[in-house]
Amino acid sequence: MRFAVLISGTLTTLLYFNSDHIYGIFTDNPEVLELGRHIFLIEIFLEIGRAVNMVMVMSLQAAGDIKGPVTIGLLSMWLVSVAGAYFFGIVLDFGLIGIWIAMMMDECLRALIFIYRWHSGVWRHKNLI
């Protein structure tokens, strides 16, 4: 998991520091370039959470724990990502930044839940077949 977090964090940090060049391929609008910088900053934390999720979910699935991660994933995506995108993006009027914040919160929350689930050992009582 450390390797996945290191790679994801490093690559997205590089993208963040080069965001003006990346978005500059498509536009020279300073507002779009600034928005892109903010999104890439949020993306650093989103991708670290996603890397943890991918490793932990695959580990839990390999141990026979499938229903738990699927249920947690569905609930988190709907309650945190979708509802959070509406709340941050529309209610608080953060726009696109608010939507990305909600997606980042979803990934990070699931990462914490799956780490807890792994350390709790609940997967030890699952059948492999």
UniProtKB/TrEMBL annotation:
Any one Gene Ontology molecular-function term assigned to this protein's record: antiporter activity
Membrane-spanning parts: 70-91
Annotated InterPro entries: MATE_fam, YsiQ
Keyword Transmembrane among record annotations: yes
Entry GO terms, CC: membrane
Keyword ATP-binding among UniProt keywords: no
Segment forming the signal sequence: none
Pfam families the UniProt entry points to: MatE (PF01554)
Record key words, sorted: Membrane, Transmembrane, Transmembrane helix
Coiled coil: none
Official protein name in the record: Probable transporter YisQ
Organism: Phascolarctobacterium faecium
